[in-house]
Amino acid sequence: MSGSKIITVQRHIIEQERDHPEATGELTGLLWDLTIAAKIISREVNRAGLADILGLTGQENIHGEEVKKLDEYANDVIIKSMDHGGHLCVMASEENEDIIPIPDQYPKGKYMLMFDPLDGSSNIDANVSVGTIFSIYRRKTTAGNGTLEDCLRKGVEQVAAGYIVYGSSTMLVYTAGHGSHGFTLDPGIGEFLLSHKNIQIPSRGKIYSINEGNTNTWDEGTRKYINDLKKVTPETGQKPYSLRYIGSLVADFHRTLLYGGIFLYPADYKDPNKPKSKLRLLYEAAPLAFIVEQAGGKASTGDTAIMEIKAEQLHQKTPLIIGSKEDVEKYEGYFKNK
Ligand SMILES: O=P(O)(O)OC[C@H]1O[C@](O)(COP(=O)(O)O)[C@@H](O)[C@@H]1O
Ligand SMILES: [Mg+2]
Ligand SMILES: [Mg+2]
To answer: What ipTM describes this predicted complex?
Structure first.
């Protein structure tokens, strides 16, 4: 065995909390419960090819999308793993229309959990990577169940955020405001082990990630920006960027975080007076923005930092431009001059 330390996610969280003497250990307990949920979902995702798991439930979620069985499963696993620990006062999920109260019989804690239980679920049947995204805030109210008001927050108020990507291996990436750290699930021992310490996204990348099928609905700035990424500029030595688009936000984001570059889901300007967005602020954009900023990157709508947007609705949607700092700043220049 090499001399390097084996650091489980639990040890990492405890050591981070030790650096903050005011910490009560509640966040450690909460994140620990989440890792258990992640392991259970990971096991089920890995068995997704088995007939009893595959198939649609035939229902639609509140966004009018088909819900796959694994979405519901992941949603249930997270709710049931998190509702009794005494750390939370309320939860909110992409799959539930309203906030999820903590059952009467359990103590209420000072944190709130928002999550996308299974992101990229349209890819499950094709064995493409999917993920879970989570975001943790401290309550505003002082006791009892948390309220909707507690959930309608700005990204800068997050205490911790992370995601699990169920890919060729299962990885957990989280931040509690002291860098973004990655852990790989060792299936042999069932533990997440520190594999990517203090991730730093390159300041500029060579890859862009966007659904190019939507070209006709983009604003002029986005269209020009993407066009220019494909150009060769001998004076600056710029070669065309490569396109990679999985269609699973977690997987597209994970690659962007490790390799650098830019992921874009701009608004749809089919009706120029009513631009429409797809990705959810509280369950998708804000947590990934926290992680990317902790890794030295940037997240923006084009003219506003994602972390500065205060949610007005639980299921609010937003454009999301995220990745390497220089790439996102360059995009903002195009967007402002559109
Ligand atoms: O098919 P599109 O429009 O490119 O959308 C892909 C995006 O939709 C999402 O699947 C939405 O997430 P859910 O699967 O959680 O609904 C993102 O993961 C992904 O980035
Ligand atoms: Mg999603
Ligand atoms: Mg989802």
So the answer is: 0.96
